[in-house]
Amino acid sequence: MISFSNTNRRKFREHLEHERYDLLIIGGGITGAGILLDAQTRGLKAALIEMQDFAQGTSSRSTKLIHGGLRYLKQLELALVAEVGRERAIVHKNAPHLTIAEKMLLPLTKNGSIGKLGAWFGLWLYDYLAGVKKEERRIMLSADEVLKREPLLDKSKTIGGVLYYEYRTDDARLTFEIIKEAVERGGLALNYVKAEKMVVNQAGKVTGVQAQDMLSGESFPIHAEYIINATGPWVDETDALDQTSRKSKIIHTKGVHIVIDHKKLPIRQSVYFDVPDGRMVFAIPREGKTYIGTTDTFYSGDIKNPEITGEDCQYLVNAVNEVFSDAAIQVGDIESGWAGLRPLVREEGKAPSAISRKDEVFEYESGLITIAGGKLTGYRKMAEKVVDIVRKRIKARNGKDIGPCQTAMVKLAGGKFSSSLEKDLAGYVKEGNSLGLSENETERIFYRFGSNTKKVLDFARKPPVNDLPLYWSIQLQYCLEEELIANADDFFVRRTGALYFDIGQVKKHKEAVVAYMAAYFQWPENFKLEQLKSVDTLLVHC
Ligand code: FAD
After folding, report:
1. What pTM value is reported for the model?
2. Which of 34, 206, 393, 395 is deepest in the core (most CB within 10 A)?
3. How high is the pLDDT of residue 540?
4. DSSP secondary structure string, 441-465?
5. Does the CB atom of residue 432 touch ligand 1 within 6 A?
6. Is residue 497 lining ligand 1, measured as CB closer than 6 Å?
7. CB 63 near ligand 1, within 6 Å
8. Residues 163-177: tens digit of each pLDDT
C-alpha cells in the first residue's frame, strides 16, 4: 500500500486516471466514506473523490454525537430509533476510542415540552427500542437530585429530570478512520478532487466523471461501472451534472454550535434542555470547553461556507442563560464555533425541526445512484442500502453475487486494540511519559488516533518540528505522512479538532505549523501567507 501522504498525490491521481473502477463515489463525508468501506469489503474495486478535504462538509460540523435516536421518538419514528440504537452499538464496538459514553441530563421544567410521565415512558421506550445496555438505562431524578448534579440550573423551574446516555464522537475523525480502513483494504480515496462533469456513453449511461485536481488545477477522467452521488448538501448540484436527474431532492437547514470556556459554563455533565421556542439544545463539556448547539433554520446561502451570524450566537447565548440561571454568558465569551448544513430530504410545508432526518436513495435512468439525508450514526446502514443496489445490478448483469454487507464486523483504522481500551491507553501513557509527553497529552492523542497512537508516538524519535512542542510536532508529522493533509486547516480543524477545542494553541502555533508545511510542500511565499490568512479567517466568530 502507498502511504496516505500528500506527497503521493500524483500516484493516487495516476491510479484514478488510468484504472477502471467498479464503483466511484463522489463525496468524502461520512456517507461516501461508509460506501467506500462497504464496497471494498465486499470485494469491489472502489474509489472516492472529495472536492475539499475529507469531512469538510457537514461531517465535521455536527453535534458530534453518536445518537441513540431520542429525538426521533418525539416524531414517532420508532423503527428509526431501533435502527439507530443498534447502529450506535456497532460504531462503539468498531471504533471505541471515538465513541465515548457520556451521561446526558435531561432536566424537566415547569411548562417544559416534556412532563414527568412523558419522560418516564419516552425514555423507557427508548431504552427498549434502542436496546440500551442495562448499566446505561435511564435513571429518573427528583428536582433535588437534578440540582445537586447541576447547581447552575434554575431552581425555580426545575421539577425533576432524567439521566440517560449518549455517545460523544469526533465526526471528522470518524469519517477519516472509515476512509483509512477502506484504503488499508485496497480502496482509493483522494481529497481535493472535484467531479466536474458526468461522462455518459452513447446509450445514455454514466461511465465516469471528468474530474479536476483542485490543488494543481489539472483535469482528468475517471472511469467506473457504477457512480454514486454522496455529496450531502451538494446532492442537487451533483445530480444536475447528470441530465436525467435534475429535480431538487433536498432542502438545507443550518445548525450552529458555539464553544465557550468550561469555566464560563461549568456544567458537570452534558445537558439536553428545552428552550422557549419549543426546541431542544445540547450543552456538552469537552476538553476544558463547553459547546452548545444547535440552531435549526432554513438556509439558502453559500453551501461551502455557511456563516455563523450574530443572531445565531445570541439565540444560543439566550437559550443557555434562560435555563442556567447563574450562568450569565455573553456573546463576547464565544471562543469558536461551527455552522453545518443538514441535507434533508424535501418535505414541503414542514418547519425545519419537524423535517425527518431519514435518508433516501434515488436511482436514475443513466445508472447514477444518489443518496440523500441521514445521520452520522446511520452511515453504515446507508452504505449497505447503496451497495445492495449495486449488488443487485451486478447479479442481473453477470450472475455474480458480491454477497451481503460485512462492515458490522469491521474494526475501523484506529479501532484495533490489542487488549482493552484502558490497558492500551495505560501502555501508551507510560511510553508517552518516557518520551516527554504529559498523561493528558497522550490521552488526547489516544482518543484521536486510537490504535495508531503507536505510530504517532514513533515520530518523537525523529527530528522534531522547529518551534513546536513535542505534542504538536508528532501529530503534525503523522498527519503529513499518514493522513493526506494538504492545508493548515486540514490539520487544525479536521485531524485534531484544535480550532474548536484548543483555540489558544492554534493561535500560538499556527506560524510554526504553516512554516513546516511550507518547507515540506515547498510552498511559495504568497501561498504560505494565504494559508496563515485562511487559519485567521477561521478564528473569527460572531
Ligand atoms: P457531507 O459531510 O457534507 O459530505 C459531502 C461531501 O461531498 C462534502 O465534503 C463535499 O465537499 C463533497 N462534494 C460535493 N460536491 C462534490 C463534487 N462535485 N466532487 C467531489 N466532492 C464533492 N448526525 C448524527 O448522527 N449525530 C449528530 O450529533 C448530528 N448532529 C448534527 C448537527 C448539525 C448542525 C448538522 C448540520 C447535522 C448533524 N448530524 C448529526 C447529521 C450528520 O452530520 C450528517 O447527516 C452527515 O454528516 C452528512 O454527511 P454526508 O457525507 O452526507 O455529507
Report:
1. 0.96
2. 34
3. 66
4. HHHHHHHHHGGGHHHHHHGGGSPPP
5. no
6. no
7. yes
8. 999 999 999 999 999
71: cell is 429525538
d(CA 509, CA 490): 15
Percent above pLDDT 70 for the chain: 98
Q: Is the CB of 62 under 6 A from ligand 1?
A: yes
Inform me whether the pLDDT recorded for 449 exceeds 90: yes
Ligand 1 lined by 80 (C-beta under 6 Å): no
In sequence order, the β-bridge partners of residue 461 are: none
Please enumerate in sequence order all residues whose Cβ is within 8 A of that of 173, keeping only pairs 6 or more positions apart, or say none.
Answer: 98, 414, 448, 494, 495, 497
Identify the residue whose C-alpha is closest to ligand 1 atom 18.
195
Look at residue 204 and give its three-state secondary structure.
coil
194 or 350: which carries more pLDDT confidence?
A: 194
Please report where in the chains the cell 455518459 appears, as a residue: 200
Q: Cα(160) to centroid of ligand 1, in Å?
A: 36
Residue 165 DSSP SS3:
strand
| Ligand 1 in reach of 346 Cβ (< 6 A) | no
Contact 24, 47 (CB under 8 A): yes
User: Quick check: 202 and 210 in contact, CB under 8 A?
Assistant: no
Taking CA 91 as the corner, what is the angle to CA 56 and CA 482, rounded to the nearest 5 degrees?
Answer: 50
For 36, 386, 389, 403, 473, the CA distances from 392, given in Å and listed in that order, are 17, 10, 5, 10, 48
Supply 390's cell numbers. 449495486
pLDDT of residue 130: 81
> Which residue puts its alpha carbon closest to atom 51 of ligand 1?
29
Decide: 234 in ligand 1 pocket, CB within 6 A.
yes
Give me the amino acid identity at 374.
Answer: G
- Would you say 289 and 259 are in contact if contact means Cβ atoms under 8 Å apart? yes
Q: Would you place residue 541 in the very low, low, confident or very high pLDDT band (cuts 50, 70, 90)?
A: low
What CA–CA distance (Å, rounded) separates 119 from 377? 23
For residues 386 and 388, give the distance between their C-alpha atoms in angstroms, rounded to a whole number.
5
